[in-house]
Design a protein that fits this description.
Rossmann fold; 5-stranded parallel sheet
Length: about 130
Amino acid sequence: MKLLLDTHILLWAAGQPEKLSKSAKELLLTVDNNLFFSAASIWEIIIKLQLCREDFKVNPYRLRKMLLMHGYIELGIEVEHILCITSLPLLHKDPFDRLLIAQAKSEGMLLVTVDETIAKYQESILFVK
């Protein structure tokens, strides 16, 4: 399966695996699954860092390097992904999450998420508690 990880899942997988549910861990450890991360997630992380949030201490360069070293596949942002956003109902207003949903839909992937608002989209979403 081709799985695109939302930013929460991505950060937990990289630095706080104890926060992942059993079902999320199983998905990430299944050898047949191809795990993707989006440039949108790295962009979102950089924005949060620039806002100087005290609780947010992620090095985006190191994160990307480690993800690639561990076999995760980087997904760039294409115009097709952005255009796909227009077909999404406005159930969620977060632009990064909407882009991740559109990327999953455009690429025939499942977006793995713990976000209940994202899960409302249903198509191309894999909700893990």
